[in-house]
From TrEMBL, chains A, B, C:
Tree of life domain: Bacteria
Species name: Pseudokineococcus lusitanus
HAMAP family from the UniProt entry: Thz_kinase
One GO term of the biological process aspect: thiamine diphosphate biosynthetic process
Keyword Transmembrane helix: no
Pfam families assigned: HK (PF02110)
Pathway: Cofactor biosynthesis; thiamine diphosphate biosynthesis; 4-methyl-5-(2-phosphoethyl)-thiazole from 5-(2-hydroxyethyl)-4-methylthiazole: step 1/1
Family statement: Belongs to the Thz kinase family.
Gene: thiM
One annotated GO molecular function: hydroxyethylthiazole kinase activity
Coiled-coil intervals: none
EC number: 2.7.1.50
InterPro entries in UniProt: Hyethyz_kinase (IPR000417), Ribokinase-like (IPR029056)
UniProt protein name: Hydroxyethylthiazole kinase
Keywords annotated in UniProt: ATP-binding, Kinase, Magnesium, Metal-binding, Nucleotide-binding, Thiamine biosynthesis, Transferase
Length: 291, 291, 291
């Protein structure tokens, strides 16, 4: 295990963006930590995907909990290993819950993930997301349009659909990572994951069927929180976020092989989230430059 | 393609209720428009079925979005191609959202569908539905008991179960269509779809397993909104609504073939919503008189 | 059919805890009553599991309805055969709905089930559950940590995970049953079901995969309400609650045989909830002493 952490990599100390050997070992370690830790992950998420998010977390090896009451959200966030805030069906109750949960997570040093679903399309949640991103999320995960809109670039996508490719969002992602201090992940054909210090990773694999079932990206946000929950203090959040993406992508790739359509794909994807090995996961993570 | 629109058919201009050739071509065209248009459909629906509704819309070829906040519901309804209002778990927040979304849809000429789940059984939602039906829905979809209750005939069903057959509701459906200006669809063994001008279509196919999984009828309401979203101005909403029913029925019939029970049926149904062809859909739509 | 009811069993009148023959016949009768009655079951449950609870009830042979508005919850509870109150994502609206629904159920002599999800972990819902348990639930169902916390013993589990085994909760369950007047069920490897008069049953079977998908235990709460809904006045709620557990366990055991992981298990479980026979169910219920 040779993950390098918390420092910008140089020619001498390659870190996660260096030789694939180091990186693969770091991803394998991240996967092992998740499976060993079975972290409790508090999810404030949207009502469309709340079930599949819980099932994806259980299958991947975590223990999900989905509070709604603001008082419970705060208490649970403080007790959890990681927190997800997903704005997909935000209402006033959940907005209150998110604010309190983020406060409790910060107080307890619990890592948290912001998923700005459809930010840039809908004004109300765009304002909420812009407030939240100033509260030091550990990671932000979205599609290209969402990340660009959160960074203040571009006018957003179409509902939950992106109207941009991942590379269109590369500069916005780096800027957002730098200003927010979060690892920023852009989901797409090849995912891009950028650290606040500018290091980046790419995640390949996956399946186009992932865009034909609801909750694929939203559940990924929960898995990101799970991987962050089991990242040790000396660990690298960039690797954790990329490993989460690779875990979900590896499962999707395997699930697509036998699927007859989106329904059977979604079922097999849960089976495969359970079945994928650390090596399956590590095989999909590449240094950013190699994308 | 030979759909006749917006006029009562006569002996000379058979329209959708005329020779099957014309009708089949119109249904094929409606299906093609859905698949080509991939419309954004805003759904205010109940929390039991919100996930399966999103998945059914994605599988059928649309892009769903499910807002909860009233301000977002209004903005999204105005941006969408179609809107579904389903009262299955209505609370005060969703009642507010529905009112605003319907207003925004009307202002933006977005077609909208009312699904009066369990109206006639529960007084609170019956009052809400009777208000909404006066606001010019493009279509109303329900089971026989719901349609009868909304039309002011009969005392409603039992929960979401109908206690009447489709034909029991034929007069109520025609009356409701005429007074509301909506296409009214009654789901049952053979579905009945009635236009405000009295023309009607029937949709066969389907499977009894559709009553053994939650969300089958509710998701159909979303698919109706998707078909209406891609109906051109010169198109016929009656054909669009019937095509939506036939799309869902065709998928159900195919799914039932290999299903071992309600769980595997629900999975296969999503696969088949993706797989069914325009011809599969057209084969299930008949002139109303032939029922 | 020889269920003994409402009396503490003695050496001479063995009742459900007596010879297996009597007990098996009582379970078979309970299953037959469910299938014949197809009861309407009102569920106030959490948004994570609301869909799978509805599907499990439909598959098992009941008709679910999930209101959210407090006024509707009260009206529906009074119309239903059984009521479930599950606090998994309780908010102020649902707390109000639960209070009114329990009142309506009591007034209409409708049996109701309390599922104290994560009580003992989160203070807010612990207080709500302690209020509700004083309102004479017909049954309480939870894992060992939840039952212990509700009985005022122990500090609760971890999210929805129990940190205790079933036998750790045996004394707490008996105490809670005696003080509340409810049949108390503790879910675990072998379930324990205890009547207020101290009689008990055990339910075997099931699958560890039941802990790898969300909603397994929560849906069980709904099935318990369904079995209680079709228990005749002279019937034994202890047998009904045990039969519900055995129905769910039998389906899980059969589903696990062909499952490739948690996704396919969840699908097959719904198929098997429909397919299991009264004999499958009866085979899993044992007198309490034989555990």
């Amino acid at each position: 295990m040779a993950a390098r952490h918390g420092t910008t990599t140089t020619g001498r100390e390659p870190g996660p963006t260096g030789p694939d050997g180091d990186l693969a070992a770091a991803v394998v370690a991240a996967h092992g930590a998740l499976r060993a830790g079975r972290p409790l992950v508090a999810c404030l998420t949207n009502e469309v995907v709340v079930q599949v998010t819980a099932n994806a977390l259980l299958a991947a090896g975590a223990s999900p909990a989905m509070p709604r009451h603001p008082v419970e959200a705060a208490q649970l966030a403080g007790l959890s290993g990681g927190l997800l805030v997903n704005l997909g069906t935000v209402d006033d109750v959940q907005e209150d819950a998110a604010g309190r949960a983020v406060g409790a997570a910060a107080a307890a040093h619990v890592p948290w993930v912001l998923d700005p679903v459809a930010v840039g399309v809908l004004d109300h949640r765009t304002a909420i997301a812009r407030d939240l991103v100033r509260r030091a999320p550990t990671a932000v995960r979205g599609n290209a349009s969402e990340v660009m809109a959160l960074a203040g670039v571009g006018a957003g996508g179409r509902g939950t659909d992106t109207t941009h490719g991942v590379d269109d969002a590369a500069a916005a992602a780096a800027d957002l990572a730098s200003t927010s201090g979060a690892v920023v992940a852009v989901s797409g054909k090849v995912d891009l994951v950028v650290a606040p210090d500018g290091r980046s990773l790419r995640v390949t694999g996956g399946s186009a069927l992932g865009t034909r079932v609801t909750g694929f990206g939203c559940a990924l946000g929960g898995v990101v929180a799970a991987y962050l929950a089991t990242t040790p203090p000396e660990g690298d959040p960039l690797v954790a976020v990329a490993a989460a993406h690779a875990h979900v992508s590896a499962a999707a790739g395997r699930a697509a092989e036998g699927a007859r359509g989106p329904g059977s794909f979604a079922v097999a994807w849960l089976d495969e989230l359970d079945a994928v090995t650390a090596e399956d996961v590590a095989a999909l993570v590449r240094p950013g430059a190699a994308a």
